[in-house]
Amino acid sequence: xxxxxxxxxxxxxxxxxxxxxxxxxxxxxxxxxxxxxxxxxxxxxxxxxxxxxxxxxxxxxxxxxxxxxxxxxxxxxxxxxxxxxxxxxxxxxxxxxxxxxxxxxxxxxxxxxxxxxxxxxxxxxxxxxxxxxxxxxxxxxxxxxxxxxxxxxxxxxxxxxxxxxxxxxxxxxxxxxxxxxxxxxxxxxxxxxxxxxxxxxxxxxxxxxxxxxxxxxxxxxxxxxxxxxxxxxxxxxxxxxxxxxxxxxxxxxxxxxxxxxxxxxxxxxxxxxxxxxxxxxxxxxxxxxxxxxxxxxxxxxxxxxxxxxxxxxxxxxxxxxxxxxxxxxxxxxxxxxxxxxxxxxxxxxxxxxxxxxxxxxxxxxxxxxxxxxxxx
Length: 376
Description:
The protein has about 375 residues and is an alpha/beta fold. The chain has 11 helices and 13 strands.
């Protein structure tokens, strides 16, 4: 830690926009991979800690939050970080994904204590919050209001794999889900996990911590379905930005990269339906503007569930070609896929209404789609 104090202080003093942050840390611009374990540890901490503290959050989902309220002036607010474990909103029951005695791979910040904070500027005229340095992942369960359809929606917030957007793309989504008669489960997955860069190109980590946590949560829900009052064959997922990428991974593989712990890990981790909102990290953009080929690490399975894709054409962070490429690949594999594309909306708008129609209309699109599938 002592060896990182000077560079951390230097970075805190920089005034970067979150779009700048995305371009520096995610657009294939991470420094060359370090050659020693100590160097790797220092590099990761220098990249992550000052980013979260100085900017209020990091990564695409928040590097672009300023772009989501496209019709209003950006309103900056002070950014504050506090040590402490994130706590659910009213009605939520937070459940650990693994027993305390099960050793888990740690995020890039190691044993750094969990923290929460807020970002800037406002989104939909409201402040938004995040959690990071997550070493013990959890799922928070919200029961449906009124009737119980038996269906469940797992919510995977974005955060660029730097953090988890706990309200904007988490609990606020659950507020809507439970009103539809569904159980909602918000995943707080392990972060941060910076994607490495090799030979000048960003690479997917061989072990993706967020995917492990999402698969474990799915197994727990199916194994405990009767206790939770849910239908084990009506458990779907919705993800935003980085969380959307995790949804795509869940949809297309049943392979786990962690040691099986108990009966929950014998359950299928594949969702029964999937919703992908402003996804990234899918398109191979090295082959020209009109190319719609996927990155080498993106695998498509004909067993993927019915999928709904939501995206704004003017998303300044995740090009519209990202979801188009994924949708075409699913279609080619025989997977039912629907798309709802809007002209404007930007990125990281969550479910907060702005002047852009997508922010007010996509929940209705989801509801109709779920009815069409027979989920609701």
